[in-house]
Amino acid sequence: MAERADVVFVDGVRTPFGRAGEKGMYWNTRADDLVVKAIVGLLERNTSLPKDRIDEVAIAATTQQGDQGLTLGRTAALLAGLPTTVPGYAIERMCAGAMTAVTTSGSGIAFGQYDVVIAGGVEHMGRHPMGEGVDPNPRFLSEKLVAADALNMGNTAERLHDRFPSLTKERADRFGMLSQQKVAAAYASGDIQPDLVPVSLRSDAGWGLATEDEGMRPNTTMEGLASLKTPFRPHGRVTAGNASPLTDGATASILASSAAAKELGLQTKMRMVSFGFAGVEPEVMGIGPIPSTERALKNAGLSIEDIGLFELNEAFAVQVLSFLDHFGIADEDPRVNKWGGAIAIGHPLAASGVRLMIQLARQFEQHPEVRYGLTAMCVGLGQGGSVIWENPHHKKYGKGR
Amino acid sequence: MTDYSTIDFSELAALTDDEVVTHSYVRDIPLSSGRTLALVTLDNGRDHTRPNTFGPASLLELGATYDALADRAAKGEIHAVATTGKPFILAAGADLSKIAEIPTRDIAKKMAQLGHHVLGKQATLGVPSFVFINGLALGGGVELPLNADYRTVDSSAAALALPEVFLGLIPGWGGTYLLPNLIGIENALKVIIENPLKQNRTLKAQDAFDLGIADRIFSPVNFLEDSIRFADGVLSGTEKVVRKNAPGKLERIAKWDIAIKIARDTVASRLGTIPKSPYAALDLLKAAKNGTKEECFALEDDALADLIAGDQLQASIYAFNLVQKRAKRPAGAPDKALAKKVTKVGVLGAGYMASQFALLFLRRLQVPVVITDLDQARVDKGIGYIHDEIQKLADKGRIGSDEANRLRALVTGTTDKADFADCDWVIEAVFEELGIKQDVFAEVEQYISPEAVLATNTSSLSVEQIGAKLKNPERLVGFHFFTPVAVMPLIEVVKTPHTDDATLSTAMVTAAKLRKNAVITADTPGFVVNRVLAKLLGEAMYAVDRGTPFSVVDEAMAPLGLPMAPSALLDLVGLKVGAHVLDTHHAAFPDRFYRSENLHELAEYGTLLEKDSKGKVKGFDKGALKIVAGGTEPMQAEEILVRLQDGLADEVHRMLEDDVVAAAEDIDLCMILGAGFPFQMGGLTPYLDRVGASERAFGSTFHDPRIVGVGA
């Protein structure tokens, strides 16, 4: 019979993230190839894991068409050279796709049905622009189920500024600038690179190799940010400088039961403590992580004070700030996004959840004094997702509260 | 020693007019060790159906690229240079169309030197050089990596080969020196001599790695990433490269010359001494034992210049284009859209030939196939043979068990021709006698639809006459295979005066689905291949019957460069069949085709050649020699040859006058694909032009201009 199991995050890697569009480095690279290279890179550095012991491959993508379609988890497994006996599926919750791949397949481990899974995501926003091929039911508007602008993420961010006047453009810009500076610092100290899988790229100038994120702007200044256009509203507050850019990239992680990890000699980088998903009004989707985090804390029996490190997806600066204000955390609290976030690195929608986990796992190594960390993100159409993790390097790990 | 840097290559620029240039792009790759690798990508901007090739402009650009990188290396900006290709293709070697246009031996030599000059730059960059063999690599596409310090190969690369000898060339951009010194003489002989002469066999990536051509093999999913990491490891000293097949002193002293001699003997026994390129390659491989790189490269330059300026290469390129291009767009073929669907095949007969047909149609068309014969025992035997062959394919791993089950379920046998009712293609392989073939078709016609195609495999009867008793003769077509059916690539599709376009189109499309090359011929005796061979064998027997020793006849005909001497050909096809073929052609054209009573006696006697227990020919059978000993006017070799050349020129000329095929090219295509006539002779007609036989026989030439080299 199945027994409840502890779920551990064994390892995670990602491709360098590229700028979406014709000028971006992945313009000639298929989305499925990106996630396959992430999976292969992940397995290459976890050689003690026999490929036939992988029980599931859950891969997320928002736009499941073309090179992101065709039951992506299964096709990626085959393309990555996994045995035909390894099953796989595709998963979709917009920005929280990879996070949902982790929580869903992780739940299967917790329930004793899997020993080891691969969970990740990919989004090639260049090849699949947001909203590609969507066909929203007319009832959304005719019955006023959502506001007309709820499907445009920039507009939802502007709405957050409306709702919380204390969230000024200046605060958002500063948050954006600091994100750029923190990412640059993390690169300089070599915190990011170890978890990047290099990806070969084809261009008109021949083959190249992606080795780092393409969208970083380390020289960002407040003056520069102030001069940027506000594309969503005249005299609005949301700009390219305080929002995450359109991005191509893929992530992959290995999760296992603690027993299987032990049996197979796999490392434990984090233990999954709890998770929560929650819905909010679609037109202010950015506040989604607030109720989802409250749920995850409740599920874990923890309070926000127990969280020592936060990896919050920076879809928009204002949306992270709304979370911090809600929980009474300062804008520049050192526990939050230590190495910056999506504003600088990029946000390939369904891939981003696992990037948060990769960075949290590495921060856990450097901070054994921290016991619990949070990964959280907002989701289009008004959702939030949160996962709480325990640090195996903490002295009380595995010893209960 | 040749200092390539002092040579003026500007004359070659005249050859670059319509060259599809393979560009060399450079991007810097940051390595995780902190070093920088300059990655050169070869890309001609076309898709994979037009591989990268090295014409003069492509080489000059690559040379300039390497020069610029050598400068950067000297400045310390880069720490390694790697070269790779566009998706699926590294390079398919020299641009053959350019080689064919070279106007003088001097320019031919410069083309050889330019290749050495440019590819050789990889040895003098000042930093380690790598080639990442990401896909197809042929000829110069293999010599490019051979000139580098290190090589990786993508395990999915379609093919690696040095096919030059097959084409009448030699691997002359370093191949004959670098390869044996990398992987040993025996392996090099396999790649440079043996494989090209085995229907141009190529290496899989794994073979190339096992031979030691590549230092590492990586899977395609991360080939470039892994290759770059390997290069970084080599630079850092963490990756060690061991070349276990590289020849040592002992190999040079004890093995090298012997291996060359064995190879030379094998080539001589299989091809004779007419083709030049294998021997030129053998000479170069021998020189590679002790020669320096500079000396051997200079020898390659001269050997390549000689071959490019010679007749054989031009004929080879002509033949190559026939097989690669003309064979794929058969002259006179009606619109493919007219072809009728073939969803069930009937085979009349269940003997050996019929069973081979059934097997081929089964495998290639994957439709139901029904075979029939006079009684159940013969049918059962045929089915048994087919099932056995399917099992053999399964045992060899060529097909899976599902596929084997599928094929077995598709083939049925019957003695009731009513079971042919829903066949839309019926082919006969019954006894080669007109009345029998007429009757069997007339009988089956009662059951099948009026549109079903009837095909006959006759080799010597009139197809039109075979259809004389048919109600619908317009659906009859000749479909002449060559044995062994599974292997020989030619089908002569014979069009009678009644054959309609839909039937002819169906035959052409079906031949293509069987993966055969089809040539359309008129319904004339012997069609193409047998008529030419009958002329040849008739001339041989004529000389023998006059009292010329068989061995002299064999020798006399050797300059045609045929895959086997007349005596061996007779032995292969069978003396009875040979005698029959001469008889039928003599009956059709008594003035021009010789029939030999002696050959009938030999057929009765049963043996011509004396063989050892392994089937190796030791000489002529003494009894056979006695039978043919009666002649009193033996001919000289020269006389035999000229008579043969002139006779062939006359006969081929007549065939063209009578529209047996559309053009001389089709005669050559038939002889190359159906009888193994050699590439380096261009089949037959370029040779007949070249030796003056065409002029003597009909006062003109088959080709204008003649297909000849530019000479020294």
Automatic annotation (TrEMBL), chain A:
A Pfam family matched in the record: Thiolase_N
UniProt keyword Transferase present: yes
SUPFAM superfamilies: Thiolase-like (SSF53901)
Keywords, ordered alphabetically: Acyltransferase, Transferase
Domain Thiolase N-terminal: 7-257
Cellular component GO terms held in the UniProt record: cytoplasm
Entry EC number(s): 2.3.1.16
Active site location: C95 (acyl-thioester intermediate), H347 (proton acceptor), C378 (proton acceptor)
CDD domains on file: thiolase
Domain Thiolase C-terminal: 268-390
Example GO molecular function: acetyl-CoA C-acyltransferase activity
Biological-process GO terms, alphabetical: fatty acid beta-oxidation; phenylacetate catabolic process
Superkingdom classification of source: Bacteria
Family according to the record: Belongs to the thiolase-like superfamily. Thiolase family.
PANTHER family per the UniProt record, alphabetical: 3-KETOACYL-COA THIOLASE, PEROXISOMAL (PTHR43853), 3-OXOADIPYL-COA_3-OXO-5,6-DEHYDROSUBERYL-COA THIOLASE (PTHR43853:SF2)
Protein's recorded name: acetyl-CoA C-acyltransferase
Automatic annotation (TrEMBL), chain B:
Domain of life: Bacteria
Record bears the keyword Oxidoreductase: yes
Coiled coil (residue ranges): none
Catalytic activity: a (3S)-3-hydroxyacyl-CoA + NAD(+) = a 3-oxoacyl-CoA + NADH + H(+)
MF terms in GO: enoyl-CoA hydratase activity; long-chain (3S)-3-hydroxyacyl-CoA dehydrogenase (NAD+) activity; NAD+ binding
Pathway(s) per entry: Lipid metabolism; butanoate metabolism; Lipid metabolism; fatty acid beta-oxidation
GO biological process: fatty acid beta-oxidation
Name of the protein in its database record: 3-hydroxyacyl-CoA dehydrogenase
Lineage: Bacteria, Bacillati, Actinomycetota, Actinomycetes, Micrococcales
Keywords: Fatty acid metabolism, Lipid degradation, Lipid metabolism, Lyase, Multifunctional enzyme, NAD, Oxidoreductase
InterPro entries, alphabetized: 3-OHacyl-CoA_DH_NAD-bd (IPR006176), 3HC_DH_C (IPR006108), 6-PGluconate_DH-like_C_sf (IPR008927), ClpP/crotonase-like_dom_sf (IPR029045), Enoyl-CoA_hydra/iso (IPR001753), FA_oxidation_alpha_subunit (IPR050136), NAD(P)-bd_dom_sf (IPR036291)
Family assignment from sequence similarity: In the central section; belongs to the 3-hydroxyacyl-CoA dehydrogenase family.
Residues of the 3-hydroxyacyl-CoA dehydrogenase NAD binding domain: 344-523
UniProt KW NAD keyword: yes
Residues annotated as domain 3-hydroxyacyl-CoA dehydrogenase C-terminal: 526-616
